[in-house]
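[AMINO ACID CHAIN]
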Amino acid sequence: MRKGEETRTRILDVAEAAVLQKGFGGTSIDELIAETGITKSGFFYHFRDKNALAKALLERYIENDERIYDEIFTRARQLADDPLQSFLLGLKLLAELLSDLPNGHPGCLVATVCYYERLFDRDIQETNKQAVLAWRRRFRGMFEEIMVVYTPREPIEIDQLADMVSTVLEGGIVLSKALKEPQGLADQVLVLRSFVKLLFQPPIVRQ
C-alpha cells in the first residue's frame, strides 16, 4: 500500500472509531487531524470536506458488505447444493458474524450514522441508492434460483422479497443501536431465516 493510501485508510479508521463513539456530527476535522498526526492540508488532500469523508465511509461500508456477502454465500453454496438450504445456511453464518455489534460489523453502524446525518446530500443519497439496488439484484438472483426448485406458499413479488433482506439488515442495525442490544441484529436475521424457510416449506396435507 502506498503512503497516500495508508494515510487515507488511517483517516477513515480514526473517523470510524470517532463516529461510533459520538456520531458523525460530533466528530470534528480538527480532532481527526490531531489523532492521525497529519496537517490540515494533508486532510483536505484526501477529503475536500466532511461530506466527502461521509461518502468515503459509506462507500467503504458498501465495499466491505459486498465482500462479506460474497464470502458468506459462496461458502454456504459450497456446503449445500440445494439453493434454499444454501441461502438458509448463509443467513445462519451471517447472523453469527453480526451477533456482536459493533465488534462483529462496526462499518454498518458508521454507515447508518453517516447516511442519516447527511441525508440531504445528493451524493450520499445516490451512493446509498445504488448500494440498495445492488443488494436487490444480489438477493433477487438467490430467490430466483430457489423458485426454480420451490414454490412459495403465498404469492409474493420477488423484488419485494429481495428488498426484505436489506430491510431486516438495516432495520436490525437501528434496532440494536437504539436498544443497546448487540444481539438484536443477529436475532432479526434469524427471524428472517425462519420466515424464508416457512415461505418455501411444502404445505401440510391433512388426511
User: Anything to note?
Assistant: The chain has two domains: 1-48, 50-200.
